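Issue 218. Parser rejects a valid record. Input:
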Amino acid sequence: MPRLITGSTSVTTIPFVLVVGDNDDFDSSGTVFKGDNTNARRIDTRGDFSYSTGRFTCSVPGYYHITFSLSSNDTDYHMANIKLNGSEVGGSVLNYTQYNTASNEVNLKLSVGDYVEGHRRGSGYDVYQARFTVFLIQ
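Output the parser choked on:
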């Protein structure tokens, strides 16, 4: 059962980010997921996600669950990677079939100022859908 934060923090100020986008929501190199396209669906309860950089910057220290997944729109391979302060954390999953999903998720202890990004690598860059979520566990 998830534990709610008590005290002066209200439910609406608990850090939570959900960004759903497509191929047009990556930076110009096709690597960093930014969710900046007008078709992207976004929820960001504290304004901790920058759509210009694709970074979630921690404003409330604690343990976070972070996911980044993408569904391919081609038959090339893709890797979904999560980076913490510029360094890859966890593993990545490859896929070789159109519309399959590559996904990566990690639980991390973040301090104020730490940043997290969703990155993709691979031989193909045609993405049908990408999802990046960050939420405070404790």
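Fixed in the parser; the record now loads. Residues 1 and 114 are 26 Å apart (CA to CA).
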